[in-house]
Sequence to fold (616 residues):
Amino acid sequence: MARHLEDQLKTLPARPGVYLFRDRRGDVLYVGKAKSLRPRVRSYFQDSLDSRAAIRQLPDRVDDIEVIVTQTEVEALHLEQNLVKRHRPPFNVRLRDDKSFPYIAVTVEDDYPRVMFTRERHRRGVWYFGPYANAKKVRETLDVLNRVFPYRPCEGPKPGRHSGIPCLDYHIERCLAPCVGYVSKDDYRAIIDQVIEFLSGETEPIQRQLEARMREAAAEERFEDAARHRNRLRSVQHLAERQNADRRSVGTIDVIGLAIEGDRAVVQIFPLRDGKMVDRYSFHLENVGGQDVTTVLESFCLEYYGGAPSVPPQIVVPRDAGDVSALEQFLSERRGAHVEVRVAERGEKRRLQDLAAENAAHALASETAVTEQKRLRRIEALEELRECLNLESLPIRIECFDISTAMGSDNVGSMVVFQDGVAKKAHYRKFGIRGQVGMDDFAAMAEVVSRRFARLSDETGEEFDESFAAPPNLVVIDGGKGQLSAALAAMQAFDLPRVAAVALAKREEEVFVPGRVDPVRLSRHSPALQLLQRIRDEAHRFAVGFHRQRRDTRSFTSIFDDLQGVGPARRRAILQHFGSAERFLAATQEELEGVPGVPAKTARAIYAQLHKAGRA
Fold:
């Protein structure tokens, strides 16, 4: 252990708080909380039998220890949650694949909020409901909701189109046309409040309201309106019937089931609202190996309830959860009222908790089987690549290069990395082609490959980059013989440790190998070819994205060169707000006036200049 670390360990306080482990570059490796910092932090650097393989590797990478003392363990929980969200340390327990789950989002901070399908869960001012089991269920729910609650389906923070005319949704009673002022903000907000109430599990009020409207319309002999309310009532009842049978004695609770195996875990949540199970949520966790149930449960609840729109008054946890008093106090503060975190010993809650745990174990077993199947498929692909390409060893690390250009302008290159057949996105790199005029794919490829391998031996320099430090076993070039020859010529200038190189041509999916006249043709169903295609397509996607980014930036620059009253700060504000030159040029005067950081007078002047120049 380094001397400065020994000195830091000697001065640790025996107080509650949070500790951060940093590497030699200052990046946060791990964030943890402790009732007493001194024994907890020192335990990582003692010879112990900690079963967590990742944690055993941690002390060797730690170069600095930072501690933050708090008054209580609950304060430490709050601080740990904020620091984990901010730094995303690689050794902490983390939710995996949560971005792939479908959610229903309500943009509550907009003047006229939207209710929409999404797979993200990070925007401020948005309430998320879910995750749901599948996307089809979310879209069906949204379709029913829009028939019952006529909220606006149009995109963007402001409603309507540039024409100022209500769209078809207004005429088919799917929208109340807030874009032309047919509904006030207060009335529209009341509709959104009903949507939020429904998504939170309160279905009875809207059913009673629709039934009353139906009877009133029938009594007044407005039979078309009565039929419309009847159909909406049936739609709402159909959604409500998807829930399980009433368990009114259970009340409003969340039941959590947990299954842990090795380094992975699955959490299943059964949310019950007024005794009705409104859905089932499933989450996958990583970096949990060797940790006790209490630690895993705390880490998950910090992540999940920290971003949830509401916290129920009671949460039922697994029987081996241990001391959850700090978590209970944290959730109570989050809710603004007392939250009971308890173990169910008997009755319906015990049965529900056992059911949640059984579902979690089943999901974990299924995921383990699928993961093992994918691993074997990757091994098969790597073995086949070694055999077909006559490689000396398995291509554990594969790097693929691609060039993107548009008629010789904004030339860029990309490098993507696959480790053990899996994308290693932290090692992806972009290259801006330097000093090249016109289209020359061969020269561009040679430059990108040369710049990549020039950084191979720079392990101690100021510009050290981990993605360039490890040599690849195989280099894949997106192109044909010409691109491969250019890449090989660039690689020969360096003393490389047996790096193989091939090219994959798009048209016939032929693999060109140095020293062979005829290309290698693999079966379309070959795992090796499918792996090469996936790597090549990823490199192409990454290069095209970078090319579009540079092109849009250049377009904005050329537009702003002729605009008066727009300096660097306002240019950045406009770029961040609109995202592309096309959207900026198509913006109305009102949309320009809504750009944060741009005064209304300046926005009107910009709009006038664009129209005077004939651009918009």
Summary: The mean pLDDT is 82.
